Amino acid sequence: MSESTLDETTALIAQPFELNLTKVHNTEAALLVLLAERIAEMLEQQPEYLMSLLYRMDVLEKKIIPVLAAGAPEPPHIGLARLVLERQKQKAETKKSIKVEPLEGWDL
To answer: What is the domain range of residue 30?
Structure first.
């Protein structure tokens, strides 16, 4: 992931998950660890709010269900963190690839 995509992805994740970004060492792996820790807390203390965030971030339910299943290959908080990171990375890359020109005559 490029540095600009990482920065944009971090910005998309930090605010809704209330992440302390002073811990991030500017790598995707560090962001994943920090996000997984926060999701673990939320699964225990605020599961409804977490599911609401996932819905608003457009993380697909069909991807969430297997991650939360008993036989999942990794703990739920890590799997959910991977899904969030993947989705927000897609959003960041889409924003970079689609440039919208300002509309003429819409000065406020």
So the answer is: 3-94
Task: Locate 101 and state its tokens.
Answer: 């020109």
Question: For the chain, how many residues are written?
Answer: 108
| pTM for the model | 0.85
In a domain, 102, yes or no: no
Rounded Cα–Cα distance for residues 56 and 14 (Å) = 15
Q: How many domains does the chain have?
A: 1
Average pLDDT per consecutive 10 residues, the chain (108 residues; last block may be shorter)? 85 89 76 95 96 96 95 96 96 86 73
| Per-residue tokens: 92 | 């960041």
Determine the Cα–Cα distance for residues 53 and 44; give it in Å rounded to an integer: 15
